[in-house]
Structures are given as C-alpha cells and as structure tokens.
Amino acid sequence: MLKSVLKSKDIQIRDPFVLPLEEEGKYYLFGSTDKNIWGPGTGFDAYVSDDLSNWEGPHPVFRPPADFFAEANFWAPEVYAYGGRYYMFATFRRKDNDRLGTAVLAADLPLGPFEPVSAGPVTPEAWSSLDGSLFVDDAGAPWMVFCHEWQQIGDGDICAVRLAPDLSCAAGEPVTLFRASQAPWTTPYESPRYPDAINYVTDGPYLFRGEEGVLYMLWASFIDNTYALGVAKSESGGLLGPWTHQPEALYRDDGGHGMVFRLFDGRRALAIHAPNRTPEERPLFLEIAERDGRMVIAGPLLG
CDD domains recorded for this chain (predicted)? Predict the structure, then answer.
C-alpha cells in the first residue's frame, strides 16, 4: 500500500528520535505516535525521509502481541543499530503494578517489525521509570540511562544501569547520576495531581559526544511550568560523571525531549517536539553546535 508524503507540520509525534542510515541516504523518524498518548497504547509508527522535510509514512513498526505486559502509555521509542540488529528502547505502563518502565525490543530491519527482547521492563520493577536511552561506554559495555519519575519521588532522578550484553536485562543495580533540582535552570513543577508537593521533573535523557570527546547529556524539565531542554556535561568524560549543568536552558519555548544526530553533510542536528501540548506536538529540527565547551542552538533546519 502506498504511504503518504507528509511535511513535519503534518506529523503529530512526541519524543522524536531520528536514526540516520548513511548507506541508504535516509533518516528514520520514531516517536510516541498514538493520537492520545495518555491513554491505551496502539503501538509505534515511523516515517522515512531523505531531507528532513518530506516524510513517507506512517509505517507500523511495533504492535503489541496478545500477551504483552502493557496496554497503555506507549512512549518514547529510541532505535539504535547495535550488534548487527536494530534495538528499540521504549516506555510502557505495566499491567501488573501500573508503573512505568522501559523495555527492549529488536528487529532485523529499521522498520521492524520489532519484537520484545526483555521480559518486561529492564528498569526496576518497584520504580516508576521512563525514557530509557542506550549508552555504550569506552569498554564496550551497554548501559541504559533513564528517569526515576518525579511522580514517585518528587525530585526526579537521572539514573543509569548496566545491561547484559544482549540488552535483555539489567546486569547491576541502578546508579543515580543527578537530581532535577541540581540544575540551576529548573523550577518546581506545579502539578494539579500533587498540589501540596514540591516537584522537579526529569524527562528524556540522551547522551552524545562533542567534537573533542566531551560527554554531554540532553534532558528535559520545566521552567515556570513550561517544558524546556537543558544540557549537562560529564567532568570525567565518563557516564558516572560527576555531571555539571549549563546554567541556562538550551531550549525553553515549550519544547523538549531532545536527541542529537548527524546530518549527512556532517552537521549536528537536534530533534525535539514542540509545543508540549496534545494534539499540537510536532517534530522540530534545529542545528546544534559546540562552542567554548558548551552546546548551543545554531539555527533552524528545514523541516
């Protein structure tokens, strides 16, 4: 069946993640694609482009099997080429305890179909966790970096846990990298569900290396109840930090949950969704650059 060709403004998506495949000259766009992502989960769709402007799709890349562990809140799929296959890290709300967790799926092709690799989430069963992201350290060991959710602990954490070589399960205990309130740019989130609590949100961590090997992390939170994106830097150059924060948010105009990828011309691009309101969220692509040891937005990209 022929798929539609769409502009970015036509695609409702949250948590956009771009997998560039240079050998194909194609960009693969994944994200939270249910029309009502706060309700029952349908699965994940993807889109394909050669210019970040015209997208062909949607392609159904994951639909849950009948015995799947979750049926709601299918969020933030990230797809990586790893070990000769394509691995998806995605968040789901468990049926058994109603908590969020990130599970691992895999496929032989970037458009799937993706099938579960882990037996449920690889994040701790007792935690409400989300937005797991793959990081491979200098020794070649895989880790998941994820959020311990603010709704459970108030001051949200960014954590890391080492994974088994096949990514099917955790291979150690989680380590806390930092808390949301430690960043100078965040402010408490005023939640109508928790009106008497002081909450700091962590959302959407993503790690990448700068030109000189500096390890950076994108992550999202709120400024005066407006969604925003910040940057942290590892002072040791390794995953365990310590992590310091750029004093100002990288993007604060009601957008976030970012990731960084290389354009085929060598420039770095930032993908976020904006605004942070359903059903208005759309993918936004910006050029990002490293200047004087900091990440900055260099300007818009076509899309």
Answer: GH43_Bt1873-like (cd08981)
**What is the rounded distance in angstroms from the CA atom of residue 274 to the CA atom of residue 174?**
31
Q: Which two tokens stand for residue 53?
A: 């402007």
pLDDT digits (tens, 9 = 90+) for 154-196: 999 999 999 999 999 999 999 999 999 999 999 999 998 888 8
Show the domains of the chain with their CATH numbers. Answer: 4-300 (2.115.10.20)
pTM exceeds 0.70, yes or no: yes
